[in-house]
């Protein structure tokens, strides 16, 4: 174990920072406590001492990567209800458009897609920290579902733009996309049931097969 | 190399089937030609002989997993333009709701999220086989972008429902979700610019909650 130099981050901070790097680089499956310890220049026992199991280290690392989302959530709680859609939409492009905040999130998505345990941790965190809190702003009985469909639009956009990189979506100016997406997100949150005017007509039409 | 029995699939079919299994189980990164050959009971050289590189085997396997999407695309090309949103939405729930069709798609998503080469193959296939063809049905100059934003809503929903499994989205009846999503998808495809009628009002209105 390396001796600490004055002004250097303490072991828990170094471990968390190393854990984020390790999970980002190798995903939950392949990341190891040993490598996290090596990156932090501590003994593996110290990782367990401070954070417990690999699952618990991951949860803590994810929470840290998730802090911009929590900040955005607080912003969404502060604006007028009819601005929540735009606030959420802007948040997605701000966070995913910046490599510094995108990479940790991408690492979480990768881990969650690859591993059931990581998916469960992610689900718990997203539900507790984001979805439930945002749903609390809405009065509709289906508030949670509304928030999730809104988030689905944004998550899908982030996937296609920043991960799969389909064109023209990947290179379209963020403001153009925000102008199109914010009303849809807002509709999910506070629109009347099927409240896209004209859409009910389309859906209930019986002239289909 | 095992001797073929009459009635058994020929080597190319066995190789493709084994490749799908291998890519699904281990992802693009970890999948190996050797394991694909073993699963197909052929020599690895035969995998290369029929399909070329690992990248090319993956592309072929993805194309096969993708065939339900191509069928749905053809259906979306056949219905009235104002039904395309619902057709696409129903397709997503049909394909992702059935483990037999979901698993190969999930394997592709996993690989694409983990590996740039796999993402590029997926992007090429999705663009050529789905997005461009569907955009061809629309007359708007921004047809490709419209299709992509529509697909983003559906992809995000599939991710949250079937991969991350957030509640209540994960256990809500598909018909309830289709009723909410189809109008949004249709709006992306054929709505006026920001054309969720009433959405402008919703966005600025204060007469809710």
From TrEMBL, chains A, B:
<dbReference type="Pfam" id="PF17920">
    <property type="entry name" value="TetR_C_16"/>
</dbReference>
<protein>
    <submittedName>
        <fullName>TetR family transcriptional regulator</fullName>
    </submittedName>
</protein>
<dbReference type="InterPro" id="IPR050109">
    <property type="entry name" value="HTH-type_TetR-like_transc_reg"/>
</dbReference>
<dbReference type="InterPro" id="IPR009057">
    <property type="entry name" value="Homeodomain-like_sf"/>
</dbReference>
<keyword id="KW-0238">DNA-binding</keyword>
<feature type="domain" description="HTH tetR-type">
    <location>
        <begin position="9"/>
        <end position="69"/>
    </location>
</feature>
<dbReference type="InterPro" id="IPR041678">
    <property type="entry name" value="TetR_C_16"/>
</dbReference>
<feature type="DNA-binding region" description="H-T-H motif">
    <location>
        <begin position="32"/>
        <end position="51"/>
    </location>
</feature>
<dbReference type="Pfam" id="PF00440">
    <property type="entry name" value="TetR_N"/>
</dbReference>
<dbReference type="InterPro" id="IPR036271">
    <property type="entry name" value="Tet_transcr_reg_TetR-rel_C_sf"/>
</dbReference>
<dbReference type="InterPro" id="IPR001647">
    <property type="entry name" value="HTH_TetR"/>
</dbReference>
């Amino acid at each position: 174990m390396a001796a600490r130099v004055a002004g250097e981050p303490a072991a828990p901070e170094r471990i968390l920072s190393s854990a984020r790097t390790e999970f980002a680089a190798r995903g939950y499956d392949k990341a190891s406590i040993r490598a996290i310890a090596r990156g932090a220049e501590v003994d593996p026992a110290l990782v367990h001492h401070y954070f417990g199991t690999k699952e618990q280290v991951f949860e803590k690392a994810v929470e840290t990567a998730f802090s911009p989302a929590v900040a955005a959530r607080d912003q969404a709680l502060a604006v007028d209800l009819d601005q929540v859609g735009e606030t959420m939409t802007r948040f997605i492009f701000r966070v995913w458009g910046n490599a510094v905040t995108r990479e940790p999130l991408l690492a979480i998505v990768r881990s969650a897609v690859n591993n059931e345990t990581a998916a469960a941790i992610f689900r718990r965190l997203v539900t507790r920290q984001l979805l439930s809190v945002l749903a609390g702003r809405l009065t509709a009985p289906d508030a949670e579902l509304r928030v999730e469909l809104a988030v689905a639009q944004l998550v899908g956009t982030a996937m296609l733009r920043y991960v799969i990189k389909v064109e023209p979506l990947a290179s379209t100016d963020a403001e153009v996309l925000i102008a199109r997406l914010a009303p849809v997100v807002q509709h999910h949150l506070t629109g009347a049931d099927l409240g896209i005017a004209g859409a009910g007509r389309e859906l209930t039409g019986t002239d289909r097969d």
